[in-house]
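Postdoc handover notes: sequence design on the structure in folder B. Input tokens:
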């Protein structure tokens, strides 16, 4: 963790291990690193996505990509906490939902975002047009419904960002941990 990052102690974070289906229908075990206050909600969301057989390409902490957000996005990696490098940030460190562990990017290839720095879709434009398909987040689709039921916000910026859910900007503690389900396939550590 870099000195400018708002999270300075590992104890502020939790690793959430969850089952998910990959795009071939196989059950995989993935992990997300999130702020402790969103860990129960994260577990409930991904338990519901597992029950709905919503596919996720891969789910690893950005540590697997040496903290490189661009590499994580290119790998179609679903990830959460990331105090991004200065060249990779969209918000000031202290306000950033990702730097505070309160944002999750789901299937970046299938759900790209418009990067105004290059006026291009990142990580690519193949799925920029919003049509139903495996692993895609669409308004009123299963992924959108499960996150929204827990109080998460979709695309909390002024440009299209189809992969992104967060608990609000600027990032603030999330207190909606009493949710409607208990976790059968997810655990928090």
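Designed sequence:
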């Amino acid at each position: 963790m870099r000195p400018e990052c708002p999270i300075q102690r590992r104890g502020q974070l939790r690793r959430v291990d969850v089952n998910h289906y990959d795009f071939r229908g196989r059950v995989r075990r993935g992990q997300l690193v999130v702020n402790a206050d969103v860990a129960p909600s994260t577990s409930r969301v991904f338990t519901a996505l597992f029950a709905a057989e919503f596919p996720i390409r891969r789910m690893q902490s950005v540590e697997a990509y040496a903290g490189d957000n661009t590499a994580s996005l290119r790998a179609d990696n679903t990830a959460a906490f990331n105090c991004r490098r200065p060249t990779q940030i969209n918000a000031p460190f202290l306000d950033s939902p990702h730097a505070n562990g309160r944002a999750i990017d789901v299937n970046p290839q299938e759900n790209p975002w418009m990067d105004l720095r290059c006026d291009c879709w990142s990580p690519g434009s193949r799925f920029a047009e919003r049509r139903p398909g495996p692993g895609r987040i669409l308004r009123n689709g299963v992924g959108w419904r499960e996150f929204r039921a827990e109080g998460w916000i979709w695309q909390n910026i002024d440009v299209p960002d189809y992969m992104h859910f967060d608990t609000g900007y600027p990032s603030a503690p999330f207190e909606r941990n009493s949710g409607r389900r208990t976790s059968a396939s997810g655990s928090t550590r």
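Context for whoever picks this up: Residues 17 and 55 are 16 Å apart (CA to CA). Don't rerun without checking with the PI first.
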